[in-house]
Amino acid sequence: MLASQLGIRLLLLIGPTVPLPAPYSVMSALTKVEVTNDAANGDGFQLTLTLTKTPGLDYGLLTGGQFKPFNRVIIGVIMGVLPEVLIDGVITHHQLAPSAQPGASTLTVTGKDVSTMLDLKEKDDRYDNQPDFVIVTRLIAQYAQYGLIPAVTPTTDVPLMVQRIPRQHETDLKFIQRLAQRNGFVFYIEPVTVGVNKAYFGVENRLGVPQPALSMNMGALSNLNTLSFAQDALAPTGTQGSFVEPITRTTLPIPPLPSLKIPPLATSPVGAQRTTIQRETANQNPGQAATTAVAAVTNAPDAVTGTGELDTVRYGHILRARQLVGVRGA
Fold first, then answer.
1. How many CB atoms lie within 10 A of CB 311?
2. In CATH, which of 2.60.120.380, 1.10.630.10, 3.40.50.2000, 3.55.50.10 is domain 121-202?
């Protein structure tokens, strides 16, 4: 593989809204880079650097301005010949650890992905006659300076002012996440290339081309150091509820509805043993009640989880969260 022949090289850009390649003083002081790619809790990064004092008896990296709070940081790797962006984020935290030993002082810079910029300011707003996907598209457009490209799935419910008015009483990120949960969707921001990010609002993506397979017990083709699976039979959830038919005013039960997590990733999915009652559907129209029931089933956690450690050089690619990957030999 080219990755094993050419190695893995770091790509680091830092700066205000439009980041630039990190200067030599930063790259030479860098000792550790850690990137977290987490579908549940968001992406983050941490840079560890050694500090040396300038003739003015101050730390040059602290006075240089590269690590100001909310400066943008793009971290990528070049495996073989193709660059891949791991995270596009902003600096949120500094930790300085001075030392009496020369060259032993360290600066730890921590940050989160650019979705943090959507989570800074709470708002009170209303969106008359606008479906959820239109609201989300409008909100994402306000952050174009961070290279956000909306990838928004249309929603079916169109609220009318005489019946319901969508209202926002939280930050843009929390509001979008609430709209996503209400529809059984997910919302996340991930890098496409340097300076460009996809803001995805839609069903969990279980289609498309899988990433290269994770291999265990396959001799020279193995790329996993460890691998384990766990199954939680209590994770899947079914729903019950009822709604009022608007013409006859008859109360009708909500029929069993499937999850939006299609197709299932297991040959024999675990059936739901627990049931929750969706009481809010009693005040909703049939379309809203169906959406609520489907969202409740979809938002339930997966029954099977896997954990392991990957040999990246053997794998030859970046393993990304939120994308399909096959497992063989386990």
1. 11
2. 3.55.50.10
Angle between helices 286-299 and 172-183 (to 10 degrees): 100
pLDDT at 58: 67
- pLDDT tens for 136-163 read 999 999 999 999 999 999 998 888 888 8
Q: Which residues pair with 227 in a beta bridge?
A: 308
How large is the average pLDDT for residues 305-314?
89
In terms of CATH, what superfamily is 2-114? Baseplate protein-like domain - beta roll fold (2.30.300.10)
Distances (CA, A) of 54 to 14, 58, 66, 235, 305: 21, 5, 16, 56, 50
Sign of CA dihedral 81, 84, 88, 93: negative
Most confident of the ranges 52-66, 244-258, 306-320: 306-320
Alpha-carbon distance of 276 to 239, in angstroms, equals 5
